[in-house]
Design goal:
The protein has 324 residues and is α/β, with parallel strands linked by helices. The protein is built from 9 helices and 7 strands. It has a 7-stranded mixed β-sheet. The N and C termini lie far apart (82 Å).
Length: 324
């Protein structure tokens, strides 16, 4: 299992696209062998997305994963090695002999439980053929470096900034580095909160396609699969935890509570930012990038105008000499 540290283009449509067929003739239709470079990467209309969800929600996870492998290029699995992600990983490992493999992306926030990091090592041994890409907060490799750069207990003083530097920015960096177009997630409707009306397939603000292959499964179904197939899992699940994130924001839950009720206990928060709409920090970054682009354009226009000035003066002098 390898280890790396560490927007989708807007869909276009050109009715004039011509495509080279196998015999060298232009068929007139767009395909992977098109002689035209501007062919859409992955594009769904709302109607198409609605139709896909109506069909996919009738399928079992294995069938959804087969469809994903066939239909979605640059497909990765994002995982914190929760139970649902482990089921997905195990199913994929059984499909891989006849299908392409799917690399994993793990966001090491530097604040995971030691049990989670131990699980990562066990997963590497169990699935050695799977590539694992690990991304940490930008510019830091340890919790001491993180604290020195961002202060202590950032999750309490500014939880939105914490989510950005520990999770959202590393995810964006991973997607850019790896040219990710689609990801498999471990979200399920039975986890409660904002996930209660989860679709099987979604498209986020950046155009990344998110597939939730176990969206229809309950916690009991997931746990049964783990036990039946002897899949390694986080030891914390034997101590009352059901959803495991960072140590500072995860607690065991009581009987009858929602599966994710132990995350951010006592807060209205239910997601870390990766699966939310664009955060305030993402919006600020987008505004900064737009301002920088506008400044570059203005500078280029001024340079172009200045380049024209000498010839204009020369022409004027030439005219004055000629008229004299």
């Amino acid at each position: 299992m390898g280890q790396n540290k560490g927007e989708t283009e807007s869909p276009t449509h050109d009715s004039g696209v011509s495509v080279s067929s196998g015999d060298g003739l232009e068929s007139g239709y767009a395909s992977g062998s098109s002689s035209q470079e501007q062919v859409p990467e992955i594009s769904f209309t709302k109607t198409h997305l609605r139709f896909l969800n109506q069909q996919l929600q009738k399928l079992e996870p294995e069938e959804i994963l087969r469809w994903s492998l066939i239909s979605l290029p640059s497909l990765y699995q994002t995982t914190a090695f929760g139970l649902t992600g482990l089921v997905t990983l195990d199913i994929l490992s059984k499909l891989s002999p006849s299908s392409r493999s799917v690399d994993l992306i793990f966001l090491d926030t530097l604040h995971h439980f030691s049990e989670t990091l131990s699980l990562v090592d066990r997963i590497k041994r169990r699935y050695p053929a799977v590539n694992l890409h690990i991304y940490k907060p930008d510019g830091v490799d340890s919790i001491s470096q993180f604290t020195a750069k961002y202060s202590e207990r950032l999750w309490e003083t500014n939880d939105e900034l914490y989510d950005w530097v520990a999770k959202v920015e590393p995810a964006r960096r991973a997607y850019a580095d790896l040219q990710v177009k689609a990801v498999l997630t471990g979200r399920r409707r039975s986890q409660g909160g904002k996930r209660g009306d989860l679709d099987v397939i979604e498209v986020d603000d950046a155009g990344i396609i998110k597939v939730n292959p176990l969206a229809n499964w309950s916690f009991q179904q997931v746990q049964e699969y783990i036990n039946t197939h002897n899949v390694p899992y986080n030891e914390l699940l034997d101590r009352g935890y059901k959803s495991v994130g960072d140590w500072h924001s995860t607690q065991p839950i009581k009987e009858g509570e929602d599966e994710r009720s132990g995350r951010w206990k006592g807060q209205t928060k239910t997601e870390c930012g990766i699966h939310n709409k664009k955060s305030r920090y993402a919006q600020i970054l987008q505004e900064q990038e737009a301002a920088a682009a506008a400044a570059r354009k203005q500078s280029e226009e001024e340079e172009a105008a200045a380049a024209q000035l000498p010839s204009t003066l020369a022409e004027k002098l030439a005219l004055e000499v000629a008229s004299a």
